[in-house]
Write a structure and sequence with these properties.
The chain is an alpha/beta fold. The chain is built from 10 helices and 6 strands, in the order βαβααβββααβααααα. The chain starts with a strand and ends with a helix. It holds the Pfam family Asn_synthase.
């Protein structure tokens, strides 16, 4: 498990995703204490982020060019590299993951109404409007997300796998009524991705099952290291001039 965190200074790196990641690790350790879990804490300074973006990441993200593509591309690149440290017996030691397969969670939000814009669409257009929104999300996911993430991960000679986009999973989810996959009359942390949350709770991940959605670029704080006035859809000048 790789957990990327960004900071404009050497510390602190206890960003939101780091905190919830550690809590998730504790849940997994309780459920399966015999297994060795490697929780790799990947700390990225602003200087390293800027240097790596200029030298590598900007070319991998291309032809995409938005602020969103920049922040997600950078977060995924550092997470996929897998270089950080793990804590054993209360002490940290340097660690680099040798895993050649990277599992990503892309596709869950798009099919199970995980984004805030899905709540807006549900509020204005009801279940039918939400269904149309989810259909549109899935139809554009290859050009909007998959190419970028695959290139970024492949830069480390690793292969991206997308379990939620497996043909059998997509077919099953498409066969279900939208209200069984999400109930957006319920609050954040409950209603979105309801089907997935129920499965997690059944498996014993009771705390993780009720965490609100937090985008990777915000949870890792990578989106807040530079110009915080930008919108996600803006062209990213850091990519254009890199």
């Amino acid at each position: 498990m790789g957990n990327a965190a960004s900071s404009s200074t050497a510390s602190p790196f206890d960003v939101p995703d780091r905190v919830t990641g550690r809590a998730g690790l504790e849940e997994l350790q309780v459920l399966n204490p015999e297994r060795k879990w490697n929780f790799v804490e990947i700390n990225v300074t602003q200087e390293e982020l800027q240097e790596t973006r200029r030298g590598r990441i900007c070319h991998l993200v291309y032809p995409l060019e938005t602020v969103l593509d920049d922040s997600i591309g950078c977060a995924v690149w550092f997470a996929a590299r897998g270089r950080g440290f793990i804590t054993e017996s209360g002490e940290g030691r340097a660690f680099t993951s040798r895993a050649k397969i990277i599992l990503t969670g892309i596709g869950a939000d798009e099919q199970l109404a995980g984004y805030s814009r899905h709540r807006v669409r549900f509020k204005t257009s009801g279940p039918e409007g939400l269904l149309q929104e989810l259909s549109m999300e899935l139809s554009r996911i290859s050009t909007r997300n998959l190419g970028r993430d695959d290139r970024v991960i492949a830069d480390h000679s690793k292969e991206a796998r997308f379990p939620y986009l497996d043909e059998a999973v997509v077919s099953l989810l498409n066969s279900l009524p939208v209200w069984t996959k999400a109930d957006l009359t319920l609050p954040r942390g409950v209603g979105e991705k309801l089907l997935l949350r129920l499965a997690a709770k059944q498996m014993g991940l009771t705390q993780s099952a009720v965490l609100p959605k937090r985008a990777m670029q915000f949870g890792s704080r990578i989106a807040k290291m530079e110009d915080t006035r930008e919108k996600a859809s803006d062209k990213c000048t850091r990519l254009l001039t890199a």
